[in-house]
Amino acid sequence: MISFNYETGFDLDNEQEYADWIGRVLESEDKTEGEINYIFCDDAYLLEKNIEFLNHDTLTDIISFDYTMGNLISGDIFISVERVKDNAIDFKVDFIDELKRVMVHGVLHYCGYTDKTEEGEQEMRAKEDEKLAMFNDQTEV
């Protein structure tokens, strides 16, 4: 089950469309959908989590807590809407496109992809692009 929670004034339009998409992403990776919670928040909220849980005193766009067991994908994905908006401006992309990229990025980590090396980062970007293309294609699995 994919759920959406809000710790800021932001609301995601058409939550079911996003939940269906993430489900298709998981199916395309031969994974099973467990409990995935998206928590949309602001910079201050996410900074507090970053300090509390990761001992990092820096702003970030996403922090994910992975509870995956085998192929059952589960976790909590915290996303700073403020950071995503700033990144969209910096990267000269649409806010919603950047938000979808960050949303799928967290799930791809749960599927085993990492971005700690240059090679891993390139693979992650390619996977993000592949999965973003699935957003508008309701038939792909």
UniProtKB/TrEMBL annotation:
GO terms for biological process: rRNA processing. It comes from the Bacteria. Its cofactor is Zn(2+). The keyword Cytoplasm applies. Its EC number is 3.1.-.-. One of its GO terms (cellular component) is cytoplasm. It is found in: Cytoplasm. InterPro entries: MetalPrtase_cat_dom_sf_prd (IPR023091), YbeY (IPR002036). It is an enzyme of class 3 (hydrolase). Its main location: cytoplasm. NCBIfam families: rRNA maturation RNase YbeY. Single strand-specific metallo-endoribonuclease involved in late-stage 70S ribosome quality control and in maturation of the 3' terminus of the 16S rRNA. Belongs to the endoribonuclease YbeY family. This is Endoribonuclease YbeY.
